[in-house]
Write a structure and sequence with these properties.
Structural class: mainly alpha
Shape: elongated
Distance between the termini: 67 Å
Number of strands: 2
Helix content: 55-70%
Number of helices: 7
Radius of gyration: 25 Å
Largest sheet: 2 strands, antiparallel
Length: about 140
């Protein structure tokens, strides 16, 4: 076996070590991913939160407008969900007794950062419905 030049050996060794480092960084941390998914579902999960966000983002800012735009939601449930969503910084509730709209709900920039994900969920949901119908 020929002896490798020390410089060449160091070069090859450093490439191997760098590759190992990159691969280790690319490994997915399943525990961290599960925690992130659980956090997301805690904040956005349930039957009503995404429809509420969708309603507000589509221009419904009054309580009754939001309520009417979501079939099946009760006044009590909407009120509860809006409070929870406000605590999680997804919506902002503004109250102005002198304004035409006294109480107004708006999505926050933080909430809007989830917009592309919601759009993809809508696309997937439509595609899924077609797939189920086609295979029924």
């Amino acid at each position: 076996m020929t002896n490798l030049n020390p410089k060449w050996y160091n070069f090859v060794t450093s490439i191997i070590e760098y590759t190992k480092l990159i691969l280790n960084e690319m490994e997915r941390n399943q525990k961290e991913e599960v925690q992130a998914l659980q956090d997301t579902l805690h904040v956005l999960g349930g039957k009503w939160r995404l429809p509420i966000i969708n309603s507000i983002c589509n221009g419904n800012h009054r309580f009754r407008e939001i309520e009417r735009s979501i079939p099946g939601i009760t006044t009590r449930m909407l009120s509860r969900e809006l409070k929870e969503m406000e605590l999680n910084m997804l919506i902002k509730r503004t109250e102005d007794r002198d304004a035409e709209i006294q109480v107004k709900y708006e999505s926050t920039p933080y909430c809007k950062s989830f917009g592309p994900v919601i759009e993809e969920m809508i696309k997937w949901g439509k595609s899924h419905r077609k797939e189920i119908i086609r295979n029924s």
